[in-house]
Design goal:
By secondary structure, the chain is an alpha/beta fold. The protein contains 10 helices and 9 strands. It comes from Kribbella steppae. Pfam families: Bac_luciferase.
C-alpha cells in the first residue's frame, strides 16, 4: 500500500480476506456441513450462509434450511474461521431476541461470529411466513431502529458477548443504508464493479466524516459471485476492498474457485 492509498483509503490497511457464501439451497444439511469443513481446511477466512426461507435460484420450492439454527451448528462444526449470515433479515426476528441469539452463537463459537444484517428484500419470504413486506424505505427505517436496540441488549445480557461482535451491514443505498453503516458497522458489504464500489466507498467516507468517525475503522467487503481473481481481484483491491466473498450453491458446492481466491489472497498479503 502506498502512502497516498493510506491517506485516501485508510481501510486499505486491512489484510485481504476471503469469504465463501455457502448458499443453503438444493442440498441436504450433511452436504452443507461437509462444505463448510472443506472450506475451513482450504483456508477460507469467513463462511457465510444467508437468511431466506426458500431458494433464490433454481427450483423455487427446492431443498432449503433456516439461517440461525444452522449458524449455531457451524459454531460447533468449525474451529478457526469466522462465520455469519450474509445477511440476516432484520424483519424476521425481534431485535432483542436476535441480539440474544447472536450472543449465544458468539459464545458457542468462542468469539468467531460476524453479525451480518440488512433490511430484507425477498418478498416471497415475507408472504409465506406472514411478515409485513411494506416498503423498502420502511424496512430501512426499521433496521435503523433495531440496531441501537441490538447494541443495548448486548450490553445488558449476562453473560455479555465474548467480544465486541463485528457488525456487517449489507446494501448500497446511499442515503439510509450507508449512513447506518457509518453509525453502526465494522464491515460494509456491497456488490458491483470497481467503479461502483469506489463510489459507494466515497459516499460512506462522507457519512463517516459527518459523524466524526474514522472511515478506516470499517472493513470494505464485496461479493464477487463466481468471478475469478483475474476478473475482479486487482480492480476491487485497488479501490480498497479487502474481504472478497464468492458464492457456491448446492447440490454440488464446487470449491475450485475458492482455492484460486485463497491462493491469490496469500500472494497479495505476502507482498
Amino acid at each position: 500500500m502506498t502512502d497516498s492509498e493510506s491517506t485516501d483509503r485508510p481501510y486499505a490497511a486491512f489484510p485481504v480476506r476471503i469469504g465463501l457464501q455457502i448458499q443453503p439451497q438444493h442440498a441436504q444439511y450433511a452436504d452443507i456441513r461437509r462444505t463448510v469443513a472443506a472450506a475451513e481446511e482450504i483456508g477460507v477466512d469467513v463462511a457465510f450462509n444467508w437468511d431466506h426461507f426458500y431458494p433464490l435460484s433454481g427450483e423455487p420450492e427446492g431443498l432449503h434450511y433456516e439461517c440461525w439454527t444452522m449458524l449455531a451448528a457451524w459454531a460447533e462444526a468449525t474451529e478457526r474461521i469466522e462465520f455469519g449470515a450474509l445477511v440476516t433479515c432484520n424483519s424476521y426476528r425481534n431485535p432483542d431476541l436476535l441480539a440474544d441469539m447472536a450472543r449465544t452463537v458468539d459464545h458457542i463459537s468462542e468469539g468467531r461470529l460476524i453479525f451480518g444484517i440488512g433490511s430484507g428484500w425477498f418478498e416471497k419470504d415475507y408472504d409465506e411466513y406472514g411478515y409485513e413486506f411494506g416498503t423498502a424505505g420502511g424496512r430501512l427505517d426499521a433496521l435503523g431502529e433495531a440496531l441501537p436496540r441490538i447494541e443495548r441488549r448486548w450490553a445488558k445480557l449476562n453473560p455479555q458477548p465474548t467480544r465486541d461482535i463485528p457488525v456487517l451491514i449489507g446494501g448500497g443505498g446511499e442515503k439510509k443504508t450507508l449512513k447506518l453503516v457509518a453509525q453502526h458497522a465494522n464491515i460494509w458489504h456491497g456488490f458491483g464493479d470497481a467503479e461502483t464500489i469506489a463510489h459507494k466507498h466515497a459516499v460512506l467516507d462522507e457519512h463517516c466524516k459527518t459523524i466524526g468517525r474514522d472511515p478506516g475503522e470499517i472493513e470494505r467487503s464485496a461479493g464477487v459471485g463466481n468471478k475469478s481473481p483475474e476478473d475482479l481481484g486487482k480492480s476491487l483491491l485497488d479501490v480498497g476492498t479487502r474481504l472478497f466473498t464468492i458464492s457456491s450453491s448446492g447440490p454440488d458446492y464446487d470449491l475450485g474457485l475458492l482455492r484460486e481466491w485463497v491462493a491469490w489472497r496469500d500472494e497479495v498479503n505476502a507482498k
